[in-house]
Amino acid sequence: MTDGPHHGRSSTGPDARAADPNTPQVQLQMLAGDHPELRPLIAQNPNTYPALLQWLSELGDPAVDAALARRSARAGSETNEFSAVRDDHDRRYAPRDTQYPSVQGYNQHYVHPPRQSHPPSQPRPGYYPAAPTGPTPRETQAAPSSYAEPERQPRRRGGGICAILFLLLLIVGAGAVAAYFLLFNGLLSGDEDPADETSVSEQGAQQQTEDQGQAEDETPAPEDGTAEDDAEAVRPAPEGAQDIPAFTAPSGNINCAIGEDELACSILDYSFETPQDCEGPARLSIGSEDPQLDCGSTGGEDSATLQYGQSATNGRFACNSSESGVECWNTETGNGFFMARESYQLRN
Q: Does the reported pTM lie above 0.85?
């Protein structure tokens, strides 16, 4: 709105309060000290008290001086009109034989103080004019205490110290969190990376295979003709393997069944993906051909437990149980698979 008393100013902004006759004198004092650009409006405000007008006149600001001059002219015109009314009233109602002295003092108005010969000193930042000593005729009561703003204290430049302390606390906290995860989730938990376990298991299986090959080379051929059968095995069963048709891993998560033509193992709980998006157990199998991954379970749930470090065999298939998982293969072709909770491998 642009047709109000403040000509487009906000009804709650500093400029509107500086020009509003109803603004408390305490707020006018604060506005004059904090907002130099509003001093001309305050100089013309009818509610501005004399001490504040005197302070404004000593600033030497041309805009403020012009506003004070307009205020004086307006006050003079109002006083002259009032004096004319009083004179007319005396002439009309006074007795003819009574001579009244001329009324003095009604045409007095605010006189702009003389300009100083030298440039007046500007007020220091944070300096405020004297506070009002009492209410003016326009005020019905003193300004509420809630409007009285406390004097501004000089700002203490402690931001640098606070920033340094914050950075130190941040560094200490990050170090504590890193130490916690390192000690409790790493060294003290005893957990090992499944990939590392798989690598160790593969190296152990490879070393075991090499040792078995060397032992077979050093073992003399039996006289009953079994040397011909051993020569056909690409990767024979480990020495001391148990001859059982089915077994279960110590965790109970993997079950295997060893038949004459196929070896199959199923896993109940796993985190790897399957090509068929199995909703139940995943199944790895090996026969005469390459190993395969599909969905399903085996019939070895109630079979004996094959402890870690033990091996099982039945015919031309063999399996080895370890803490990292279960490895099975065809002794004639060497093809097989490795199965664990986190991953699986098809070995051709």
A: no
